[in-house]
Amino acid sequence: MRINVEEPRAAERFWEGMREVAAAAARHQDPGLYHSIVKIGRAALAQGVELVPSSGLFLECPVCEVLPGQRCVNAPRHPLQDNILHAERTELAEKALRGEVPFPHPLR
Ligand SMILES: [Zn+2]
């Protein structure tokens, strides 16, 4: 049964929730929560949730190595400019959720 919920910014809110759970998983070092993030993320995409520019926040950044849930920081040769995360992180999230590459530690 489908129910309708009024949430105009549903995609942003969804990824915001993913980021918050990722931050909690990092804070508590909880592998179960990391696995839940992958499960929820893949199921949501299968249901048509779109990726937004901040989607990658639930992963550790492959460039500046900040923890899941944390915003990127400037790194040598990888200035952030106006972005809150590195483009490589967003790209990694897309590929990992599609199953094209493995999730990085500790989501694997
Ligand atoms: Zn980064």
From TrEMBL:
Domain DNA-binding phage zinc finger span(s) in chain numbering: 39-98
One matching Pfam family: Phage_zn_bind_8
Highest taxon of source: Bacteria
Entries under InterPro entries matching the protein: Phage_Znf_bind_put
Protein name, per record: DNA-binding phage zinc finger domain-containing protein
Organism: Micromonospora jinlongensis
